[in-house]
Amino acid sequence: MSDDTVVVWDESLLAYDLGDHPLDPVRVELTIALARELGILQRPGVRLVKPAPADDALLTRVHDPRYLDAVRIAPRDPLFAGFGLGTSDNPVFDGMHESSALVAGASVTAAEAVWRGAARRAVNVAGGLHHAMPARAAGFCVYNDPAVAIARLLDLGAERIAYVDVDVHHGDGVQQIFWNDPRVLTVSLHETPLALFPGTGFPDETGGPDAVGSAVNVPLPPGVADAGWQRAFHAIVPSVLRAFRPQILFTQCGADAHRVDPLADLHLSVDGQRATYLAFRALADELCDGRWVATGGGGYALVEVVPRAWTHLLAVATGAPLDPATLTPPAWRELAAARRPGFDVPLRMTDDVDPGYEPWQPTGEPDLVDRAIAATRKAVFPLLGLDPHDPRD
């Protein structure tokens, strides 16, 4: 296996543009620009690869052919309605099929590079559209690129794929698509569905009748900051991954759990997000011989957060992590200010937060995070042969 890292990128990925909408492609443009200015994309062993669009054969591994027809037709029909399209969340836009298929193709390119051994790790920051359903657009997502890429890995012979989603919103589309497939473990940490879209992701959602224990959900209360979030992550994710023994790790790294994100209510820092990426790499190294595919996802603090978070992701995936105290380059600050006048442009790659945490213990007076941890462990750990009360599991 090559020790290279593939970064799937082409400016044409910015065409996934829903117009005057929170999911603004400027966040991806500024991520790539920041990573380039900091020299991350020029590191030895980093290969930029242009994506090809996913064809219908790939897309219909996940999506209904009638839905593909609707995505193609909708921009040409001013009276079109249905399939979740034409809503405020998922407005119709020109080139919708082509740009959505390209995002899906980029994640497939990343997954194939890792599975075939052309790279140890691969990243598609434009991907992570995890809400799209087989026959319906949802949550800003037209085609579900993580699910399409995972389906491709299954077709290539993968038998155990772990998908871990740290977007602030539940990874509902990916969970539903693989709900009854024991070859795919879906894990999602998210703000409680009692408070946030899409209203799913409770601990008792543990997989279909042929795949009991293949879905793991960790809903967290509003206001959780780095220490609580990291405690929940480390109390659940390493254990279920070790029990599942994945051949490849696929992560959705939405940045919208940050404290200043306008669409949600968790209080993470960029430093905490960086710590999660380091944990992902360590788990991939421990369990999958380093095989790790990462995508972006949500994130609506377009200048203040997303470019820094995903630049940290790219740094971790391509080699040495960035020192959090690193200054953002002046040229990038000028670009960000020009692209989004009036936005606060960060001067450093840190929020000056220590993302340390106290490990979970089943004793003492539990707070709301501990209750969430206990609920998830009670629901799913026995299904995976783990003891929900033993902190060593």
UniProtKB/TrEMBL annotation:
GO MF terms, alphabetically ordered: histone deacetylase activity
InterPro entries according to UniProt: AcuC, HDACs, His_deacetylse_dom, His_deacetylse_dom_sf, Ureohydrolase_dom_sf
Record keywords: Acetoin catabolism
Occurrences of domain Histone deacetylase (ranges): 21-315
Protein family according to the UniProt entry: Belongs to the histone deacetylase family.
Database matches in PANTHER family: HISTONE DEACETYLASE HDAC1, HISTONE DEACETYLASE HDAC1-RELATED
Protein name as annotated: Acetoin utilization protein AcuC
